[in-house]
Structures are given as C-alpha cells and as structure tokens.
C-alpha cells in the first residue's frame, strides 16, 4: 500500500514567519551585533555620575553649572548639582555636613576649616594624579605650599581670593587735576591724592570719599584690609617663630603706624567717613574715588557700573615693604564612591580654558600661572596688577593656623571701635595702648590654641 | 449600753452594697482608663518636646563641661574651665553689658509706652480697632525684612529718618555707625516691633477691671492719676507680671536684628552691638567652639531664670 506522502509544509510561527525564516533572521542579527561589538571603537561608556558641588561663591555658581554642561559633552551621563551660600554660611554647612557624611562630593571653601577637617581625617589628601598637576608648571610653588598641611597637600588650587589692587576713578582724577597715568605709589601719596579727591559740604563733612576704607560692619574682612596697610608698614597680625610658635606682630611701630594712617584718614584729613557709602558699592556708584579690593570688583563694575571710568594699580608701597596678599581658594573632594570622578572634574575646572573663562565671566582670577592672559589684558587692561607681578613686590599669605579666623574676626571688631575713636587723633600714646590691647587679645587666642611663643 | 452590731443586711441592702462595690471598682477602672488615655495622648507631644527641647538643653549642659570642637574628634572633659574663661573674656562681658542695657531699655520703654497706649485705647475713642491693628502690625511682620527696612531707614546718607530730621536743621546722624548711638537704634527698632504685643495684653487687662470699682472710687472722690495708681495699676499686676517676664526673656534673646544690621560692609559696628546670642552663635558656628558656646548658653539661661524669679518676687500678686 502506498503511503501518501504528506507534503511538508513550512511550520509558521504566530508572527506569520516561517521557523526557518525566523531562525535565519535571528542568526543574521546576532552575527551583526557581534560584528558591531568587535568593529566599533573602544569608547568606554562611563556609568552616569551625578556630582554634588557646594560653593562659598554664589557669583560663581553659574560658572560651575556651565562647566558641568561642558564636561558632560565628553563624559556622557555626567550631571552636576550645585549649591552656593556666602562664605560663613557655607563654612558652617561644610563643618556640619562633612563629619556626618552628608556633605557634597566637591566643595570650594576657605582653607580655614580645611585644617580642622584634615586633622580629623575628614578630607582626603591629593591623589598622585592631582599632585602631578600641582607640581607641574601650572601653579606657583607658593600656592602648593599654601595647600600643604602637616606634610600633605589638600585640594586643587582654583581661584585667587584675596590679591588686591588699588582701583581709582580716572574721571575724578582728571577733575582734581591729577594725572590718571600716575596713580599713588606710596601710602603717603595715597593720603595726599585722597585729600584732593574728597568732596565736602559747607560744614566740612565729606560727601564723596577720596578713598573708601573698610571702617564699619563686622567680619574678618576688616582686619584683612587693615593688613594691606600694616604689611606696608612692616607688620603682620601674627608671625611664626623659628620654633614654630606664633605671636602678634603689630604691637610695635608698624601697627601704630597703620592705625595712625586710618585715624588720620578719618579724623584729620576726613577723606572717608563712617556715614558715607562704602566699599565696592561706593566705588561702583561713584561715591568714592579710590578703593582697595580684589579682582572680582572688575566683574561687578562690568555688570553694575559699565560707565565708570577707572583703572587699577598695585597696592602702594609702604616705608618698609611692598606687597600683596594671596589667599588661594581650592576645590576639595570628599571621601566616597564619587571621589575619583570628583577629582577628575576638579582638574577640569582648573584647566587653562576654564581658568580664562572663570576670570572673563566672573572676575575672580585663576591661580594657574601658565594661562596666556594677553587676550584678557587686551580686553580688560585693569587686570594687569593682578596677573603681572612687578619685580620687588612681595606676596604674603594667611598663616597656617586653625585659630586664624578667630584671631582675624576678633581683631576686626576691635579695629572698628578704634577707627571711630576721635580721641586717638594726634595721640600716639592712645594709639599705642589701643594696639597693645588688640594685640593682647590675639596672643590670648594663640595661648588658648596652644601655639603661642616668642622664641 | 451595748453597741448594736450592724444590723444584718436585707437581701436588698446586700445587693445594694455589692452594686456599690462593683460601681466603685468600675469607677476605679474608668479613672485608670482615663488617666491612661490622657498620658498616652500626651506621650507623642511629650516625645516631641523631649527631642526638641529637653534633650538639646541637657546636651548643651553636658557640652559646656567639655572642650568640644565641632570638627575635631578629640573632646576632653574640662570641668568648669569654659565658665572660668567666660569671666575673663572681654567679648562675653561686652555682650553681657550690651544685652542687659538693651533688655532694660526695651522692657521699660515697651511696657510704659504700651501701657500708655492701652489706657488711651481703653477709653471711648473712635476707630479703636484700627489703631490696635496699626500698632499690632509690626508684631506679626517677620523680623528679617523689617530689620533690613530699618537698616535703610537709619542710613546716614539716604535714610528717611535723617531726611525728616533735616527739616528741623539736624545734621545727619550715623544711627548705625556712631559709637553709642548704634545700640539705641536697635533699641528703637525693637521697641517698635514689640510695642503692639504689650499694648494688646495690657488692654485686655484693663478691660477686665470691673467698672464698678471705678464708679465706687469716683464716688469717694478719686480721679485721674489717683485712680490710676490706686485702682488700675494694682489690678493690672498679673498681666504686668506676664508682660514684663515675657518681654525680658525675649529681650535677652535678641539676635536677628543685630545680625542683620551688622552684616555687610555698609553696616553697624559689630563690636558695639555684640549681644549674648550673637556671641554664642559666633563661638559655636564660626569658631566651632561648641563647648565654650554651650557654657555661654547655660549662663544666659541662668541669668534669665534669675531675673524671672526676681520679677515674680517683686511683682507678685497677693492672693486672698
């Protein structure tokens, strides 16, 4: 009996494809995928990283955000969350958050609290890759030294926080018969110029300051500005002995001379007054002819006083010294799973293109010394005294002292009281006693910190 | 005479006694249940109070005996060292002086002026409600924006206060920058802020004095000041005590307006306006000396406690 051969029809899947066709297409697909995997360039797809960054410079927050977007172009999946507050508030946040592991991945903050965090082993020292950058020609050795505490280097130097210059209104100079190309070179000349630039009412009260000094308010900034004058006179708030101890260095002729400068300016020549508007806002609104401040004022003037005609010059010389302060602010990474990514981003933030961008957009100066400032100087020549350092002009920095903020803040409080004391005018004995009392307070703080010594 | 033994209970009497015993037991259970319910109901709020008030207070007390730095891990016991250092600290002593001067001035001015206003408003004035609302408005306004507004009012060059004074030939005063004047500027601002609160409380006290007493006094020939001294003031004692105690506590805790007005380069001199709470804040959160700041906080608490007890003693209300 013949068996009817049943024709073998192709079995169809539910999609309508035959099994053979399905298997064929799957095989082709797999082969294609394998080929792509083999043939495509070896680009590592980084796992998405979100870094949190806290800053004590609210005006720089936008720069950080833009930098984050720029970085994300070459690091897909990268995201940056930022938070900013004024410096004191941010110091408090950092001090509370870091010890409790609730802090950010990255933060910029003054060195003041880093010393305490380092002592408590709460901030990691720089890894080898970052050290390579710091030891290269990118940064001046003094900057690396500034970031060194007990043999370890912390942070990536980011911006120059304190280097000051003298700002002066060239239009007011011309009106007063002064040559705008010859700014005051010494503190004596500064007072002379200030007298010519001051405007007074019929009763002799200043209505426009010849120079706006930091006379009121509170905060360590007052002492910092006093130090511009004190340094020139040959003194410092504190000085370290050979044995590594510290004591005051202004209960002396230098301190008395610096205080005399302020007392004469306010009460004798009346080139400034506590009742007048002051500081950057006074200079920007043209209610002061001269002003000593950091580079960020250039950014403020661009934004709020574009019509102000001004130039800058180095801080004047004193009878003993000529110098400018430096206070590097660095970016620090926190310990944690994102530490490596944080260090990488920190190095990106201080790369030469970003360094130039920082200064152009915000006004603060980068700490890199290998940046070509020529284009910036062509556009804004007022940056010259900040980036071109004259021969013979020295640099000084805040001392490496955990108690420094307390010394400076309390010194500031006493200085403000002294500036307002008319009885100190032409009163050398009174000035001497005042400086002695303020210096005694500084020494007392050093004693309590266990670092006081005179030998 | 023999004492009769208790007569045997009738079945009805026995049943009644059983019923009363049962009722008593039920009542005890009920009372217990009520107490339990009350305490359970209070437990959550007590827990919150413990966490937010009692625990921080006891912790502060504990910290005050240590050299407790916010960041450094080493926090040794130092006993009374922090308290001894306070006595030699010129900043603390200045803050104590400034705060005490501030408190006395604000309490005296706000109570006296508040009392005067409440006496005026207790009379038959038109638009009394409107006046009350106007005086109470600063009380409900947040302190920070008000402090900023007053900073501008006090500005030596463009402040409205100096502008108005210039109409009378007064030369510009550095309200926030002149030594000795700055603290009074803060006092003026603070009195303005609390005046309405004291006025309302004293007004309530005045309205609660029975009119019949005044009628009786007037029949006896008492008028004006005599009536005020003999009737009004003595009967206002309970409210006065409350107002003075609360005002003193608030005044000693002054911080916000001082902090706002001394911030920035165009601000009041920090040293001359140093107050206790600001000193505590600076020591604790700027210099991170938590142990020292805690000792200061304990001292402040003891000062306020002592003043409160003194006020209770002096202004005590004789009962009966």
Give the topology, please.
The complex is a heterodimer of chains A (455) and B (320).
Chain A lengths: L18 H21 L9 E7 L5 H14 L3 E7 L2 H11 L8 E4 L1 H9 L8 H8 L5 H6 L1 E2 L2 E2 L2 E5 L3 E6 H6 L11 H11 L1 E2 L5 E3 L12 H13 L2 E5 L5 E4 L3 H16 L10 H6 L5 E5 L1 H9 L5 E4 L9 E4 L1 E6 L5 H11 L2 H11 L2 E2 L7 H6 L4 H4 L6 E4 L6 H16 L8 H21 L7
Parallel strand pairs in A: 1-2, 1-3, 14-17
Antiparallel strand pairs in A: 3-15, 4-5, 6-15, 6-16, 7-12, 7-13, 8-9, 10-11
Helix pairs in contact in A: 9-10, 9-17, 10-18, 17-18
Chain B lengths: L10 H53 L17 H8 L1 H33 L5 H13 L2 H11 L6 H7 L15 H26 L3 H9 L4 H12 L1 H16 L3 H6 L14 H11 L3 H25 L6
Helix pairs in contact in B: 1-13, 3-7, 3-10, 3-12, 4-7, 7-10, 10-13, 12-13
Protein described:
Chain A is of the alpha+beta class. Chain A folds into two domains: about 50-155 and about 330-395, 3-Layer(aba) Sandwich (D-Maltodextrin-Binding Protein, domain 2), CATH 3.40.190.10; about 165-325 and about 400-450, D-Maltodextrin-Binding Protein, domain 2. Chain A has 18 helices and 17 strands. Chain A has a six-stranded mixed β-sheet, with helices on both faces. In chain A, helix 9 (about 220-235) packs across helix 17 and helix 17 runs antiparallel to helix 18. Chain B has a single domain, classed as Orthogonal Bundle (MetI-like fold). In chain B, helix 10 (about 235-250) packs antiparallel against helix 13 (about 290-315). Chain B has about 325 residues and is an all-alpha fold. Chain B has 13 helices and no strands. The radius of gyration of chain B is 29 Å and the shape is flat. The model of chain B has no long low-confidence stretch (mean pLDDT about 85). Chain B has helices spanning about 10-65, 80-90, 90-120, 130-140, 145-155, 160-165, 180-205, 210-220, 225-235, 235-250, 255-260, 275-285, 290-315. The interface of A and B includes residues 274 and 279 of A.
């Amino acid at each position: 009996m013949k068996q009817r051969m049943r024709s073998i029809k192709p079995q169809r899947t539910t999609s309508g494809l035959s099994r053979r066709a399905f298997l064929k297409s799957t095989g082709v697909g797999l082969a294609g995928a394998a080929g792509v995997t083999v043939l495509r360039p070896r680009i590592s797809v980084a796992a998405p990283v979100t870094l949190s960054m806290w800053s004590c410079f609210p005006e720089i927050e936008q720069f950080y955000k833009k930098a984050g977007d720029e970085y994300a172009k070459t690091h897909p999946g990268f995201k940056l969350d930022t938070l900013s507050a004024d410096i004191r508030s941010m110091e408090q946040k950092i001090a509370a958050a870091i010890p409790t592991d609730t802090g950010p991945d990255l933060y910029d903050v003054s060195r003041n609290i880093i010393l305490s965090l380092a002592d408590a082993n709460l901030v990691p020292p720089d890894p080898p890759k970052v050290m390579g950058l710091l030891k290269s020609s990118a940064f001046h050795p003094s900057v690396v030294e500034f970031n060194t505490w007990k043999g370890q280097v912390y942070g990536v130097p980011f911006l120059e926080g304190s280097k000051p210059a003298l700002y002066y209104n060239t239009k007011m100079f011309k009106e007063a018969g002064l040559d705008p190309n010859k700014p005051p070179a010494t503190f004596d000349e500064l007072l002379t110029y200030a007298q010519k630039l001051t405007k007074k009412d019929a009763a002799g009260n200043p209505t426009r300051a010849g120079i706006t000094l930091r006379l009121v308010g509170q905060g360590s900034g007052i002492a910092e500005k006093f130090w511009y004058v004190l340094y020139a006179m040959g003194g410092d708030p504190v000085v370290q002995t050979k044995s590594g101890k510290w004591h005051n260095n202004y209960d002396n002729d230098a301190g008395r001379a610096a205080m005399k400068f302020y007392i004469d300016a306010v009460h004798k020549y009346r080139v400034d007054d506590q009742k007048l508007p002051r500081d950057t806002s006074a200079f920007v609104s043209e209610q002061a002819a001269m002003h000593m401040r950091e580079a960020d004022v250039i950014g403020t003037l661009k934004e709020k006083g574009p019509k102000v005609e001004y130039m800058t010059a180095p801080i004047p010389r004193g009878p003993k010294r000529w110098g400018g302060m430096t206070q590097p602010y660095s970016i620090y990474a926190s310990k944690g799973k994102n530490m490596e990514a944080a260090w990488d981003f920190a190095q990106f933030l201080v790369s030469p293109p970003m360094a130039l961008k920082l200064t152009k957009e915000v006004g603060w100066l980068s700490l890199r010394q290998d940046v070509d400032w020529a284009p910036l100087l062509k556009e804004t020549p007022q940056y010259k005294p900040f980036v071109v350092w004259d021969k013979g002009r020295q640099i000084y920095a805040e001392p490496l002292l955990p108690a420094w903020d307390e010394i400076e803040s309390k010194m500031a409080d006493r200085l403000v009281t002294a500036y307002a004391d008319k009885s100190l005018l032409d009163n050398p004995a009174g000035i001497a006693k005042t400086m002695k009392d303020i210096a005694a307070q500084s020494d007392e703080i050093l004693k309590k910190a266990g670092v006081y010594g005179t030998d | 005479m023999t004492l009769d033994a208790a007569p045997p209970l009738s079945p009805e009497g026995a049943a009644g006694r059983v019923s009363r015993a049962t009722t008593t037991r039920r009542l005890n259970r009920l009372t217990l249940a009520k107490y339990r319910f009350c305490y359970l109901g209070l437990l959550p709020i007590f827990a919150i109070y413990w966490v937010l008030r009692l625990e921080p207070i006891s912790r502060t007390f504990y910290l005050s005996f240590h050299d407790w730095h916010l960041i450094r891990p080493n926090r040794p016991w130092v006993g009374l060292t922090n308290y001894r250092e306070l006595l030699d600290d010129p900043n603390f002593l200045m803050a104590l002086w400034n705060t005490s001067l501030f408190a006395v001035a604000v309490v005296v001015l706000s109570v006296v002026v508040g009392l005067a206003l409440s006496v005026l408003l207790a009379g038959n004035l038109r638009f009394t409600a409107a006046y009350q609302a106007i005086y109470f408005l600063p009380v409900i306004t947040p302190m920070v924006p008000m402090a900023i507004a007053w900073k501008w009012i006090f500005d030596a060059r463009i402040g409205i206060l100096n502008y108005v004074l210039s109409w009378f030939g007064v030369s510009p005063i550095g309200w926030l920058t002149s030594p000795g004047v700055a603290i009074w500027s803060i006092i003026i601002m603070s009195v303005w802020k609390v005046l309405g609160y004291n006025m309302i409380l004293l007004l309530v006290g005045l309205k609660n004095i029975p009119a019949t007493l005044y009628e009786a006094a007037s029949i006896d020939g008492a008028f004006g000041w005599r009536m005020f001294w003999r009737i009004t003031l003595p009967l206002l004692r309970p409210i006065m005590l409350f107002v003075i105690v609360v005002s003193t506590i608030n005044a000693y805790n002054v911080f916000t307006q001082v902090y706002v007005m001394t911030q920035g380069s165009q601000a009041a001199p920090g040293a001359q306006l140093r107050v206790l709470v600001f000193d505590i804040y600076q020591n604790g959160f700027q210099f991170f000396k938590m142990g020292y700041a805690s000792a200061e906080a304990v001292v402040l608490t003891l000062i306020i406690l002592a003043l409160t007890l003194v006020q209770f003693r002096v202004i005590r209300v004789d009962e009966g």
